[in-house]
Amino acid sequence: MFIKYKFLSILFLATLCIPLACKTSLDTQPLQLDPEVRTGKLPNGFTYYIRKNKTPEKRVTMYLASKVGSILETDQQRGIAHFVEHMSFNGTKHFPKKELSDYLEKAGVRFGADINANTGLEETVYQLPLPSDHPELLANGLQIIRDWAQDANIEAEDVERERHVILEEKRFRQGLAQRVQEKSVPFYTNNSRHGSRLPIGTEEVLLKVTPEEIRSFYKDWYRPDLQAILVVGDIDVDQMEKDIKAKFSDLRNPQKEKERPVYPVKLTGKNQYMQFIDPELGGVSLEITKKELADTVRTTADYRTSLLKKLLAELVSIRFRRLPIVGFGPLTGGLNSFSVNLTTKPAETEQGLKSIWLELRRMEEQGFTKSELERVKKAHQYQIEEALKEKDRTASELLIKTYLQHFLTGNAAPGISKEAELTSELLPEVTLDEVNALMKDYMKATDRDIIVKSSEYNKAFLPDEATVLKWIESVYTQSLPPMEEEENLLPLLKKEPVPGKISAVEEIKKADIQKIMLSNGLTVLLKKTDFQNDQILFKGLAEGGTSLSGDADYESATNAANIIAAAGAGNYDFLQLGKLMTGRKVQLSPFILDQYQGFNGSTTKEDLPAALELLHAYFREPRKDEESYLTLLGRAKEQLINKQDSRSQVFMDTVTLVLGNYHLRKKPQSINRLDAVKLDKAFEIYKERFADASAFTFLFVGNMEVAKVKPLLEKYLGSLPSTRKKETMRDLGINVPAGRISKTVYKGTEQKSSVVLVYSGAFDYNFENTIKMNAIADVLKISLTRRLRDQEGGTYTPNVQMNLSRYPKTRFAIVVSFDCAPKNVDQLIASVQDEINKMKTAGPSAENLQKFKAARKVGLETGAKNNEFWLDYLVSQVMNKEPLTQFFDYDAALNGITIKSVQQAAATYIQDKNYVKLVLMPEKTNP
What are phi and psi of 677, to 5 degrees? Predict the structure, then answer.
């Protein structure tokens, strides 16, 4: 009936206006797929997408996408779809057992970090990034995809071993978030199939499922008419198409092909209410969610609808100062949501909701202003134009995801050129009346879910449905003053800068860097690149940070940069700055860390002057604002409320405190500690930390015109104040303590333990030693994954992290962490220590050392063409006072690393006398 009514409406409009009828007809035509991607379908139904893209060079990303997920499982199969994904890495026709991961890791493709897969409700997607300039590896990559598609081995021995790994993955996911998901998904999907098909499955099925049952599911659903290969990278498209046709044409569909059912979530129009009680919840959380069916963008009309919703989402976000209180987002089962989320102390929920709903009511009844809409239109147009500028520099990983959604959901992937054309055509047409009408629609009380959450202790404070609705209704009885929007026409800066001068320029030719000294002592490093067409990344830093503040002022010091950023700078507060920067790509944020202070930023060639002017404003003219300060602290306190009873948070707080040698500054964050933050003191500390420009080094990496940049540096950086004090960080002695330390935390009842093992001590910091230490960490990660996960089935994902510091002291800390069953803690710790002892006595295996070197070389190769990599690298060199050209020596130094040298480093530094063991266990219960 609804479809017929809609059709009659269009016909009625057509009789009134022939041009509108033509436009409507055109609007309903499907958007064509990006012309730069070649697509096709083999006779067996197998689909392919191929696109040449040279960012990054000599690399290709391949996906195998199957429209097969946990939604297809029967009640007796819950977890099998995910089990199949695991088995695909445990042996295939051409790569039996663990040969697949071994082969790829030797080529520098890391298991988990690079090669990976994920199983969802509706799909399973395998990812395989490879070098594209190695023909044999490229050919084998296609063979791997082909094997995944239909030739996984699924042998009984491997199933039994992987069963334990998946059970540990299920254990790994246990916690508050998982419990909330298990309860809320059936609720907001109206008890649909989605609520009973979470991909991890049930323990009952995982314990009992047989290899035959897994193979049966695999044969039923892993079939070419439900699959696609996506290949995006630096490849020959014609040759790739020939290879795909040759490799995948023999895939066969089952003789008795099962129909692939669809299980849509249906909206009922009814409102729902639920309470969720959990011991790890601290305060009272309230979620109010308005649901709608997710849009599928297939036509110009769909694109316009999507554009309208994006504009509204941005308008709402700006009204709420971009705080994650109210927002739009996807839900499971083809639903989207407009939701309100708040967490408060038990007695403050009513006032918290009313303050949010009052602003929503203002949007609902008074709407947005014309100037607000024009600003978000301008910003959206700018974003599209910037993306278009980077058309030939867009990463393959981003492009392939759009084609993936085209295959899985039917969403259009017209390409950025077409999107820019559509935006230019449609954006001016979007009216304020449409936006305001859409806001009113979202505020309607239909398909609205209310979830209130807390612990049993606070259950008496939980409002029932009638109470929540009463609170909302009361908001509409209040007077609503008219919306007033002040227009600030002042310049950003209160005082025009007096430019300094460039006093010296040094060419570091090997690294293609210009080192510039300004008259106020500030140092600038410029590295011009062409990796992106219009991107400039920058960072400024100086020693000091919170280390120069006393312990009594630590909370004010560590929060000072965020407080100032929330207040604004110069003549503009935070919201006014957002308006001023509309249509410009300027991202800038000050920071004050433990040992450094500075700025992070990004911009474009055109907007660099605006970025540097804003930087100057935050340096010289920071603002102090009581309202933004209280809002910021209030939000921080809200986020803390539910963390205080979280067993994982309690454990990590303990880890931080023990490893920080129980220093005052490493105590767990709390509402009481936040109460110690004082606005005046934070403002004073901020000004102190940014009082001496001579202490700063600024680094700029990107496609910039150096001749045009230099006058800007003189004006906005050379004019900054300089005391020439050049303060340095203070050593507070916050190091991992020496000696053997063991501590067990008993919290919660979940049968899950977390283990953190730390070896630490003094370290002879030099170039070669840092590579050896990184080799220890990486090869230990490989060996622990093989032993703890693959052989013993004791954990899902062991992690190894190496922390190296040169200042204020040269120190190292190697951290091994994993989750497991409480009964397996001692056994797995013993296995870790055994692998570490092997490293100390025999060194890494030749195979694992080769894997380390291969991965590092791939990282160097791809990093050398990446702005983010170069900025991070240069910042690290400046912080450690190392040569800026060291990058070019890395490959040779890497080649010089041997099994013996790594073994000697492990034997020298990893000493049992400095060993910390921290374990989280469930609370002991009385028999």
Answer: -75, 125
DSSP 759-800: EEEE----HHHHHHHHHHHHHHHHHHIIIIIIIT---S--EE
List Cβ neighbours of 458 (8 Å cut-off, separation of 6 or more). 281, 283, 284, 346
Cα–Cα dist 97/155, whole Å: 9
Q: In this structure, what token pair is assigned to residue 380? A: 């959206």
Contacts 24+ apart (CB under 8 A), 469-473: 471/350, 471/353, 471/354, 471/357, 472/353, 472/357
pLDDT at 10 > cutoff 80: no
Q: Which pair of structure tokens corresponds to residue 7?
A: 């059709």
575-583 long-range Cβ contacts below 8 angstroms, 24+ apart: 575/318, 575/321, 576/488, 577/614, 578/318, 579/375, 579/488, 580/488, 580/492, 581/610, 581/614, 582/375, 582/376, 582/378, 582/379, 582/382, 583/375, 583/378, 583/379, 583/381, 583/382
Say what the alpha-carbon torsion angle 219, 182, 112, 207 is, to the nearest 10 degrees: -50
Residue 615 CB partners (closer than 8 Å, separation 6+)? 540, 588, 599, 601, 716, 717
The residue to which tokens 């609503």 are assigned:
480
Instruction: Give the whole-angstrom CA distance, residue 367 versus residue 362.
Output: 7
What pLDDT, in 10s, does the model give residues 273-313? 999 999 999 889 999 999 999 999 999 999 999 999 999 99
Q: What is the pTM of this model?
A: 0.93
CB 801 within 8 A of CB 777: yes
Helix axes 300-319 and 432-442, enclosed angle (nearest 10): 70
Reading across the β-sheet that carries 284-293, which strands appear in turn?
272-277, 448-454, 284-293, 335-344, 326-331
Cβ(78)–Cβ(201) under 8 Å?
yes
- Residue 413 token pair: 């992937």
Distance CA 856, CA 861 (A): 9
Closest CA to 829 of 923, 907, 744: 744
> Distance between CA atoms of 315 and 334, rounded to whole angstroms?
24
Which residue carries 């993955």 as its tokens? 169
Residue type, 187: F
In the three-class reduction of DSSP (H, G, I as helix; E, B as strand; rest coil), residue 522 is classed as coil
The DSSP secondary-structure symbol of 291 reads E
- Determine the Cα–Cα distance for residues 128 and 727; give it in Å rounded to an integer: 48
**Integer Cα distance of 632 and 646 in angstroms:** 23
pLDDT tens per residue across span 246-267? 999 999 999 999 999 999 999 9
- Token representation of residue 166: 């998946």
- DSSP code, position 717: I
The answer to whether 725 touches 695, Cβ cutoff 8 Å, is yes
* Helix (H), strand (E), coil (C) string for 354-406: HHHHHHHHHHHHHCCCHHHHHHHHHHHHHHHHHHHHCHHHCCHHHHHHHHHHH
Pairing of strands 513-518, 523-528: antiparallel
CB atoms within 10 A of CB 102: 16
Q: Give residue for tokens 């209130």.
A: 452
Paired with 699 in beta bridges are 525, 539
Query: How do 116-119 and 124-131 pair as beta strands?
Result: antiparallel
Rounded Cα distance, 633 and 673, in Å: 11
| 688-747 per-position pLDDT tens digit | 999 999 999 999 999 999 999 999 999 999 999 999 998 999 999 999 999 999 999 999
Burial class (CB in 10 A: 0-12, 13-18, 19+), 492: buried
How far apart are the C-alpha atoms of 755 and 358, rounded to whole Å? 47
The answer to whether residues 395 and 56 touch, using CB atoms and an 8 Å cutoff, is yes
Please, which residues have CB within 8 angstroms of residue 905's CB and are 6 or more apart in sequence? 769, 772, 773, 775, 776
Give me the phi and psi of 82, to 5 degrees please.
-70, -35
Is residue 739 within 8 Å of 914, Cβ to Cβ? yes
